[in-house]
Design a protein that fits this description.
about 700 residues, mainly beta, Immunoglobulin-like, transmembrane helix, cell membrane, cell adhesion, calcium, membrane
Length: about 700
């Protein structure tokens, strides 16, 4: 079972709390016999039980504030133990608060320092009074002594605490009253109520009650961008009617200004002059708004603010920029006109006409600019390209603005033309004429044909070949006599030439490049075989065998300059090598006969005498004009005899031969002249071509 009692705090010892025997409905004698004991939960034994009467009494002083503090309810718990049988009873004693504590301030005196220009409604907190009682016995209200300037406001917290604060209701004026003395009373709700007081002394501090005043609420200025350092922006003017330090003004840039603005402008704290100390760039900012403050030197200082609006005027200080959005540095030479090479974006950070950009390229180049839209151009090919004519272009794109003076920017675009196989190889000569001495050594280089291809790399790699003859005669096929190196173009002899068999040979050399498909070209090569003196003259008349002489008979009466005979020889060579001369080298009587140098006619030079020999042996040498000359010798025997039958027949024979010899000589001379003329004409034509 549980029994509850309520008693006020601060009861005297022996004060009655309750009758346990009555409340339990038990006989007092029975409680005494049951060995009644009182057990307390606390360390102190605040209560005792009279076993004879069953009354619970206060045995010690009970201070509720000490036991429970600010808790609204306070309890002490007891346990009663009895024997026979053993039983326990719980007793709860509520300790009721009494108004035994007045509110108390932390200090009997409070000092405040308030500036005379404190704002109306300003609040000044006062340390609150403390009352350990609870409920209505605790602190309930404050009272402020009567005054003209301050009112009392009490703030209540959710935990029940109350905090006093002074509220300025009327402006202070230190010059009228320097100190104010107030009394603050704290009162609880007990019956009777208890209270305490504290004295408040307020010192009115002299204030810098006149702030600086600018002659204008705001200032304006206009500057040209890139103004030199130190340029004056504006001179501020502020005044303060206070005297002494309170009227001494210092100018400064407000902390509201950005760090970047502080790097551009500076202010003289004494004169208020704002000057340029950094770079003014219209493209970064067109307007600057500078917050300026003017402070006096009073304590506390007073300040005033104004703004300075600085407009920046643009100048043409930014050249246009050329940005390549797309660009191909390699372009096929067969690209059609209108092919896009690059896409160009242009911009100018200036404004107005100074920011308007025009682009152009040189009209001498096969490129043009097309304006796609504002600030974008396309670089196009304007004509057909030829890498062999120009393989590489440096296209200068010039961008100019419309400022005065205009600024420009030049960007060079390197464009290389990629080769296509659009050019056939070209020989250096349309035809070649070659003089080759007969009997040339095998493998000797007769001529080197050379071709050029203006294409590049594989498209310009050339290969030479000799085309076979188109006829059916294999003897005329040039590949039988000649070969050509496929890369150098050197034409070499596979066989030695013989002028007497071949005097002239012509053939075609074809050159092809390495492109796909390959392009080809041809040239004609004329080979003239030059005669060498490799054939000695051959005597056709008179015919004689080896180691034998031809005999001729003449009459003793033969008179000079009778023609005895004529030596006829032919040389298989041509030209000077075939020009023959006849010489009488040996004779029995050197003065009796003579030989014509060119015709080979042998004539008698004087009349025969009886003393002359009857037989005369003549050694005639036929020599050509070659270098070195070649010759052939023939031996003639002239017999001097009277005419007889044989002599007559011999005479007829001579007459017949003599009649035929002049015609043969004429034919030989005409043939030699024609051959010599053709040779000279050929040599002259070759010399002209070489020049």
């Amino acid at each position: 079972a549980q029994i509850r009692y309520s008693i006020p705090e601060e009861l005297t010892r022996g004060a009655f709390v309750g009758n346990i025997a009555k409340d339990l409905g038990t006989d007092v004698a029975k409680l005494a016999a049951a060995n009644l004991q009182v057990l307390s939960d606390s360390d102190s034994q605040y209560f005792s039980v009279n076993v004879n009467t069953g009354v619970i009494m206060v045995s010690e002083r009970i201070d509720r504030e000490q036991l429970c503090g600010q808790n609204p309810r306070c309890f002490l718990h007891l346990k009663l133990a009895i024997e026979n049988p053993v039983e326990f009873y719980r007793i709860e004693v509520e300790i009721l608060d009494i108004n035994d504590n007045p509110p108390e301030f932390p200090s009997d005196e409070v000092s405040l320092r308030i500036y005379e220009l404190a704002s109306l409604g300003a609040r000044f907190p006062i340390q609150p009074a403390q009352d350990p009682d609870v409920g209505t016995n605790t602190l309930q209200t404050y009272h402020l002594s009567a005054n003209e300037n301050f009112n009392l406001n009490v703030k209540a917290r959710t935990d029940g605490g109350k905090f006093p604060e002074l509220v300025l209701e009327r402006a202070l004026d230190r010059e009228l009253r320097a100190f104010h003395h107030l009394v603050l009373t704290a009162e609880d709700g007990g019956s009777p109520p208890q209270s305490s007081k504290t004295r408040i002394t307020i010192q009115v501090l002299d204030a810098n009650d006149n702030h600086p005043v600018f002659d204008r609420p705001s200032y304006g200025a206009r500057l040209v961008e890139n103004s030199p350092l130190g340029t004056l922006v504006v001179k501020l003017n502020a005044t303060d009617v206070d005297e002494g330090p309170n009227g001494d003004i210092r100018y400064s840039l407000s902390s509201h200004n950005s760090a970047a603005l502080r790097q551009i402008f500076a202010i003289d704290e004494q004169t208020g002059e704002i000057r340029v100390q950094g770079n003014l760039d219209f493209e970064e900012a067109t307007v600057y708004e500078i917050e300026v403050e003017a402070k006096d030197m009073g304590s506390p200082t007073m300040e005033e603010h104004c703004s300075v609006v600085v407009e920046i005027t643009d100048v043409n200080d930014n050249a246009p920029e050329v940005i390549l959005t797309s660009f191909s540095s390699s372009l096929s030479e067969d690209a059609p006109p209108g092919t896009v090479v690059a896409v160009i974006h242009v911009r100018d950070r200036d404004s107005g006409e100074q920011g308007s950009v025009q682009c152009h390229v040189s009209p001498d180049l096969p490129f043009q600019l097309r304006k796609d839209y504002e600030h974008q151009y396309s670089l196009l090919t304007s004509t057909h390209l030829d890498r062999e004519h120009v393989a590489y272009y440096n296209v200068t794109v010039s961008a100019s603005d419309l400022g005065r003076p205009p600024l420009s920017h030049h960007t060079i675009l390197p464009i290389a033309l990629a080769d296509v196989n659009d050019n056939a190889p070209q020989f250096e000569q349309a035809s070649y004429e070659v003089l080759v001495a007969e009997n040339n050594p095998v493998g000797s280089v007769l001529v080197t044909v050379s071709a050029a291809d203006p294409d590049s790399e594989q498209n310009s790699r050339l290969s030479y070949s000799i085309l076979p003859a188109g006829g059916t005669d294999p003897g005329l096929d040039p590949t039988r006599y000649l070969s050509i190196h496929p890369t150098s173009g050197q034409v070499s002899a596979k066989l030695p030439f013989d002028y007497e068999q071949t005097t002239y040979l012509q053939f075609h050399v074809e050159v092809s490049d390495g492109g796909s498909p390959a392009l080809r070209n041809r040239t004609l090569v004329h080979v003239f075989i030059v005669d060498q003196n490799d054939n000695a003259p051959r005597v056709h008349f008179p015919r004689a065998g080896e180691d034998s002489a031809t005999q001729f008979r003449i009459s003793p009466s033969t008179a000079p300059p009778a023609l005895i005979t004529k030596v006829v020889a032919i040389d298989a060579d041509s030209g000077r090598n075939a020009w023959l001369s006849y010489h009488l080298v040996e004779a029995t009587d050197p003065g009796l006969f003579s030989v014509a140098l060119r015709s080979g006619e042998i004539r008698i030079t004087r009349a025969l005498q009886e003393t002359d020999a009857s037989a005369h042996e003549l050694l005639v040498v036929v020599r050509d004009a070659g270098e070195p000359p070649l010759s052939t010798a023939v031996t003639l025997v002239v017999l001097v005899e009277e005419k007889g039958p044989e002599a007559l027949q011999g005479s007829e024979a001579r007459a017949t031969d003599g009649g035929g010899l002049p015609m043969i000589t004429l034919y030989l001379i005409v043939s030699l002249v024609l051959i010599s003329t053709v040779s000279l004409v050929g040599l002259a034509a070759l010399a002209v071509r070489c020049l």
